[in-house]
Each structure stands twice: as C-alpha cells, then as structure tokens.
C-alpha cells in the first residue's frame, strides 16, 4: 500500500513517553483506555497523539499486546480523516475490523477491541452505503460490539457516541419502524447515548459533531439551530492532540461550507 498522507500540522504536538503518561487521563477520556506500563506502547501512543499515524500503527504492531489498540486507533483515525483514496480507506477499515475481531477472541474483556471492531465496521459501512451494509448483516455486528464495549467500560464515551450514531443512521436510512423491529434502533436511546457521552467527556468535539448530525437525522429541520450551535461549540474547542485537531478542523470546515 502507498505511503500514508501526512498529518497536515506536523510538529504542532510534541508528546513523548513522559508527557503522554502525565496527561493520560485527559487524552483518553473518550476511549477510557488503561494507561499501559510498557514504554514501547507509550512511545506508540506519543506518535499517535503527535499525528504520526503510520509510525504509531507500526510501533503498536511491533509492541504487540496492548500496542494493538494504538495500532487499530491510528489506522482507523488515519483512514477516516486523511486517506484520500476510497478503495484504500475501505481496505484500512477492513484491516482494523479483522485485527480487532481477532483481539476480541483473544481478550474478550478488552473494551477497545470491541470498540475498534465496531468503529471500523461502521466506517466501512458508511463507505459502501449504510443500506447495503445493513443488507449484509453488518448493522447487528456493529451494535453488538458497541454494546459490549459499553458494558465492559461504562465510562467509554466514544462507544456511546458511536452507538448513538448507529441508532440515528439506521433510523435515517430505513425508518423508525423497520429500524426498531429489525435492527433494534430507537430514537430515544440514540439521543440518550449522546447525552451520556457528553456528560462523560464534555469537551469532545467529535461527540458534539455526531450529536448534531444525529439531531438532524432524527428530528429534522426543527433541530437545525441546535445542531449548528453544537458545531460552533466543537469548532471553538482547543484540541489536545492531533486527533482532536482533526475533529475541530472538521467542525470548522462544515461551518464554513454552510
């Protein structure tokens, strides 16, 4: 596969093992990942937080064990935000989904193994179209994996965001009746998950963005003003690292295009 597209703000973030360890709680409020003890894994995380996603993924794979989580996160975040070629994006999401699924078999209590399996499948589903993914049975796999992640890690805000987005997207694509009966998607549950996520991680720009999108999908134009305010709040966030920078940049770009 071709070299990965670099993070466009290289050098803006300069984490090392010590600073990642010191700021771990704040940096991982969204994914509730336990702080690793292995310096090799912490170095991989430093690369991730600096936006060196390709190096972070390789370093995580080389470290093994808990390093697989940073490898999966770096690959998935890169694919979602920076990979310009659709075929390559889908291949990367497939790679993460397969790697994370294997990890769930080896470590069934690993919440982020379930989460990254679901995240990658969810983004892959968006790439091929949600309707097609539902027809292939991917919807239930995404929902089940996210519910498992939340059950294993009650403070996992990102899993709640993704599960809320699942409810919203399914209802948006197939309607509340079929969505509820066939896929277990419910509007009230989706909105509640976003509210819970933002209580756990109030400064999550991606949480605000996804909540805004869900409000419009589930409630229509009546929630457009509230959705815009959420985007404005996300755009005003101060990012802590490269991934958050990409989230804030996404909000600003969307607002500029409206």
Q: Globular, elongated, flat, extended or rod-shaped: what is the shape?
A: globular
Mean pLDDT rating: 95
Element pattern in H and E: HHHHHHHHHHHHHHH
Compute the number of strand runs.
0
Radius of gyration: 17 Å
Tally of separate domains? 3
Helical amount: over 70%
Do you know the CATH architecture of the largest domain? Answer: Alpha Horseshoe
Q: Which range does the strand content fall in?
A: under 5%
> CATH top level of the largest domain?
Mainly Alpha
The major β-sheet equals: none
Enumerate the spans where pLDDT stays under 50 for 5 or more consecutive residues: none
- Judged by helices, strands and strand pairing, the structural class is mainly alpha
CATH topology of the largest domain: Serine Threonine Protein Phosphatase 5, Tetratricopeptide repeat
Description:
The protein is mainly alpha-helical. It has three domains: 12-82, no CATH class; 112-197, Serine Threonine Protein Phosphatase 5, Tetratricopeptide repeat; 203-258, no CATH class. It contains 15 helices and no strands. The protein has helices at 17-22, 24-27, 39-50, 53-63, 67-81, 86-106, 111-128, 130-135, 138-152, 157-174, 176-183, 187-200, 205-219, 224-235, 242-257. The mean pLDDT is 95.
What key phrases describe this protein's structure?
single chain, 258 residues, mainly alpha, Serine Threonine Protein Phosphatase 5, Tetratricopeptide repeat, 3 domains, globular, TPR-like_helical_dom_sf
């Amino acid at each position: 596969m071709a070299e990965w597209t670099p993070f466009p703000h290289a050098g803006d973030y300069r984490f090392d093992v010590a600073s990642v360890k010191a700021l771990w709680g704040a940096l991982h409020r969204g994914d509730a990942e336990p702080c690793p003890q292995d310096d090799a894994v912490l170095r991989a995380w430093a690369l991730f937080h600096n936006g060196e996603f390709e190096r972070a993924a390789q370093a995580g794979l080389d470290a093994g064990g808990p390093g697989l989580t940073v490898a999966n996160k770096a690959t998935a975040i890169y694919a979602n935000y920076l990979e310009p070629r659709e075929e390559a994006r889908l291949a990367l999401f497939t790679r993460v989904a397969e790697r994370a699924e294997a990890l769930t078999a080896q470590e069934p209590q690993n919440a982020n193994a379930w989460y990254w399996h679901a995240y990658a499948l969810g983004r892959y589903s968006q790439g091929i179209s949600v309707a097609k993914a539902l027809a292939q049975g991917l919807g239930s796999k995404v929902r089940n994996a996210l519910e498992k992640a939340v059950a294993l890690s009650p403070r996992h805000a990102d899993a709640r965001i993704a599960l809320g987005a699942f409810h919203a997207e399914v209802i948006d694509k197939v309607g509340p009746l079929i969505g509820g009966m066939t896929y277990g998607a419910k509007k009230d549950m989706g909105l509640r998950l976003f509210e819970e996520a933002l209580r756990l991680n109030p400064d999550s720009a991606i949480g605000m963005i996804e909540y805004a999108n869900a409000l419009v999908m589930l409630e229509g134009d009546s929630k457009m003003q509230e959705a815009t305010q959420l985007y404005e709040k996300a755009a005003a966030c101060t990012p802590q690292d490269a991934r958050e920078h990409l989230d804030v940049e996404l909000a600003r770009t969307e607002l500029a295009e409206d």
